[in-house]
User: Fold this.
Amino acid sequence: MTTPTSPATPLTDAVSQQRGARLLSLRVLPELLPLPEAVSRGLRDLASLRMARSLGDLARPEVAAALGRQLARGGDAAALEATLVAALRAHHGALNPPPPQLAPGLSAAALASWAHAHHVGHWLVAPAEAALPGLPSWVGRGDTLAALLAAPESGQAWSLAQGAALALLADRADAAARGAAAHAARASGRGEADAPALSPLVTTLTDARAAFAAQSWLRPRPADELGKARLRVTTSPPGLRWRLPTSVANACCAGPEVSLSRGPEGRWRLACRCQAAGAGPSSAVCEARVEAVERMLDLLTRPGGAPQRKQRRTLAAAVGAAPWQRELDAFLDAAGLDLAK
Assistant:
């Protein structure tokens, strides 16, 4: 049996926003906020009566009701409670100022704050030449986007490059918002692998998806940016390879290729070409892997049409084949031979 939850009120909403609400004493609160005397006295009375000790207790319905009765003694209870709610929200806003607007001349701290709030912090550490491939050879080479934006150099080339960097960040922030909106519903319609040999692959991909979801800053791309991405089945070694065209901006490298393959120990693992080259971020923050995992899961767990079913059969046969059979198949493919003829 589940315990019914009380409906939210303006007061409980305002309390839930506060940092450290459970620890903020009701005796101290009137000293922090500009409150009418009736409200301050009501809070102190609740603490004195031991009905509530901290701000967090005000979210409990019985305590909120007791506060209402206390305030009624001082006049218009609804108006006094509205004053308390407004003061709490103002206090929250002072502790949590809104992120700055993206514009030229932002300080490094303000730029980092904006990027974090819009889930594009990883783009600040992206190499400028990879994120903005049209840069002149003398502008921003070896710099990150953050360094490019912080550079004191002047001139038309630098001004254009910094403008392009700001436009890219704004575009990626918009893409992150659109991608996040669709990501939650992406798993609907997926089922189990239709071949037992593919179940370990699905497990690896599902675990990876959960790990990426735990990265609060990381957002997948919207589907309209991935139309030209290619997913193919490999048979020797068996696995999947997904590649994003170089024409699509990417934070860790240009034209990333993400593979799902079986390691020497027999476990399935994801790898990105940016890692193979010894550059780019770690696997926990590789943006391309998020998109690759979604496409791979779609292939393995959605019914699809005849092409997708053929890909799954090919992959399942390769995964289940003995190592010597895979090596022989790879040799025959390379030599252009077909023993079935």
